[in-house]
Structure formats: structure tokens, C-alpha cells
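BUG: 3D viewer hangs when loading the predicted structure for this chain

Environment: internal workstation, default settings.
Expected: structure renders.
Actual: progress bar stalls at 90%.

Input used:
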Amino acid sequence: MATDPKLRTGRMARGAITGLAVAQAGVAHLGHLVRRKPAPGEVDARQAEHEAELGRILFGALNQLKGTALKASQLLSMEASLLPEGVRRELARGFHQATPLNRALVHKVFRQEFSRDADDLFQRFDPQAFAAASLGQVHHAELHGGERVVVKVQYPGIAASIGSDMGLIRHLLQGLRLTSDLLPGHDIVDRIMTDIEHRLAEEVDYTHEAGQLQWFGEHARLADVVVPQPVLSHTTRRVLTMQAVDGLHLDAWLATQPGQAARNRAGQCLFDWFMHSVFGWHRLNADPHPGNFLFMPDGQLGVIDFGCTKPLSSAFTDRIARVWCIGLSEVAGGDSTPLRQAYVDLGLISPSLSDADFEQQLMPALAAIRTWQIEPFRQARFDFANRSAFPVLTAAHRQVLTRSLIAVPPELPYFDRAFLGISQLLKTLGAEVAPLTPWIHSSFKESRHV
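C-alpha cells produced before the viewer hung:
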């Protein structure tokens, strides 16, 4: 395997990267504006090309910064409320850019954390990482006594770079906002970046993740879900040791050609995990990346990464259920007041937004997203192989949202990202799922009597 090159650590060098990206984005946007006016059939294609160009500029800068900036690229790629599809598609390349540490640096981390080499701490430690991500990498090991474990080792210098990297990315995004019409207002950008910075601070503290493993292991009790528990004696802020889980990642499991019944069981388990997390336990594992799930030989599902979690208030989950159920019960031309009030309660729109603007501008702009959100709940059994793609908003609709949405509730980005991720996993599985859980079913019945 290749090893990670030396990071660009100088403040001036890293600042120059972001400054150049802002300048490139400005030139790209100016070129977009001065091109000949597109024919009616070319508008969407021209917009998609412009989004992709800005996405490549943004990703190019974050990829040069690496470390927490590359992790931020991954998180931003899932912020459907912040960035358009073309930009997010380019940023998603951050999921495939990680390269592992060399052996000497691995042992240096252990000496710093435990004052011992990994070979002394474990009965057996494989210095060759079997998985690498933007913040750390994972090794197979055995405890003294023979228990198999996996060990996550954080890259040196990651935690110390969060503040400076987030400052640079804020500058970069605000520069893009001023040189294009693709980003929402300053307050929304700043709030989402503050949220990402908070999430990164949690993710680089492996003792926090160990605590989340313990919490979910105690409270998130589903018959077919396995949550490995941490080995606290072998865990620090930069090293996390946990029980090994035998299973295959999604692509490898699908390569075994499981039957439809096995796919359905796995899909129902994934869907139930998400719905219980949101409406039952009120705590969300907000990083539903395929690499964070293991499909086990006995049909169980292993959930193995809890670096990004989020407590959800009952008020938030009740309002999300309310929005979904209003959509399920509404009729064409019906009263839009309940939906408008639901969005006000969520904090998305101002109470002063006029009824006319809500009905004539905001509802059409949101229509495709709302249809996608409630699509599975319209049937007693839903085949996710036929799940619609997440809608790509037109430039006009995105501008309406930019003007109308006053804020992003702090829990909403976590929820949206998790729901989108679970939906993509279920579509890849081609699973048929019974989606009307008690929370949605009961709220749906209540909404029909409003």
C-alpha cells in the first residue's frame, strides 16, 4: 500500500491553496455568466456543468489540505440542503482518497498513547491496515488471552488541525458564495460549518466513540443488530480497540449472490435500525456509509462505526413525522396551513412568510424533495430497488429555497444525511421493506383528522 505523503502544514501554504480556489471559482463563475445565453433545452445541462466545475475546484483544494479537510469534503458531499448535486458529487470523491500510515508512524502513536509498542500491548497486532479513512486506519489484533479485536489508529496531527482547517474551509465556502449563486446565505453556511467542526472534534476523540458504542450496546436492542463493545483498557483519545465482528461489507456480501429473502431481511434490519434510532431511541448514528455495516453469516447486521452520532429531541422527531404524515394525507388543492405551520415549528421558515409565497413559490420548490421523502411510506411493502433518485433541484427552485429558508435546525443535517444514506443502501440491496412503523402509522392516522 502507498503511505500518506507529508501534509501541507504551513499556514501560508494552506491559505494559498484556499485563496487560489476562491479565485478559480470567481473566474469559473464569470465565464459561466458571459457565455452565450443557452437554448431552453440547454439550461439544466449548462447548470450541471457549472456545478461540477465548482465542485472540482472545491475538492481540489480540500484534497490538497487532506486530513480533517478531506473528512470535511465527505461531510459536505452529504449536505443536500447546502450544496447542489453537481458540487456534492465531486466532493464525494473524498471517500476514496485515504492512504494508510507507514509502520513506524503506527508504532509512534502507540508509544505516545500507551508508552508501549503495539506488539507489547497486544498478543498479536497486524501492522498492515486493512481499512483506511480520512482520520485514521484500522488493524486486526488479538488481546492477551486470544480475543480477536480491531484497532483504530488516528493519524498524527489530525486533532490539532481542526480549527485552522475549518477556518480555511469557511473562507473558501464564503468566497464561493460571493462568486456564485449556488450556496445559501452566510448564516446557514456558517451554522453548517460550525456543526461540522463540532462533529470532527467528536470524531477525533475516540473515547467519545467508545462511549457511544457502550450507549448503543445498552439501549439499541434489536434482535438482528450487533454493536461491538470497546475494550477500554486499550482505548485512548487516539486509539480505539473494540470487539471484532465477523461479516462482509455490502459489496462483498452482494458478490455472494444472496437470495431475495436474505436481501429483504437485511434491508428490514437496516430500515428498522434507522427508524428506531430516530423515533424510538432519539439518538442517531449519522454516518450510514456502506463501510460502517457488516452483513454477518447468520443474517445479523453489525454496526461498527459510531464516530458521528447525534441526540435528537422528541420535539424534532415529532415534527419530522408530522411533515411526512401531512404529505401522506394531503390532497391536491387542499389546505396548506398544516404544512406551513410544520415548517415554522421546525424553524425552517419565518412565520412572516406570506401564504401566497409559501403556496406559489416554496411548495413547488420543495415538491420533488417531499415526494421523494415519503415515497416508501405510501405502500405496505416498498421495493427499494425502485426507489427514485434523490431529486436534483433546478437553479430557480434552489434560489427560492435560498431566499425562503431562514435557518437549518441543528438536528436536520444529521437526519437528512442518515435517511439519504440508508435509502441508498437499501436501493443497492434491492430490498423489499415494510416501512409503516408504529411512529409513522400512528402519526399518519392523527394527521388525517386535522
